[in-house]
Design brief:
Elements: H1 2-20, H2 33-73
């Protein structure tokens, strides 16, 4: 999942470059700026989604490990 986050982060950077006009040429009199900004926004949103999903899974796994450790400390 982290690889997808990196992939979409790269897409967001590429979209920002197209949005600023540093990459790409107008086609048939239409500027690519709006398409670049759309790539940037979508790439950023998907990157955030994948990073949040990964961090939630890591937090859940850590809580499960801690609860298992505390359960083994209880002596009856």
């Amino acid at each position: 999942m982290l690889s997808f986050a990196l992939l979409f982060a790269g897409l967001a950077i590429f979209g920002a470059c197209v949005g600023f006009g540093t990459i790409g040429q107008p086609m048939y009199g239409q500027a690519l700026n709006s398409y670049g900004w759309a790539l940037c926004i979508n790439g950023t949103a998907l990157t955030a989604y994948f990073v949040l999903t990964r961090s939630r899974r890591a937090l859940r796994a850590r809580r499960n490990r801690e609860s298992e450790l505390h359960a083994s400390d209880v002596v009856v």
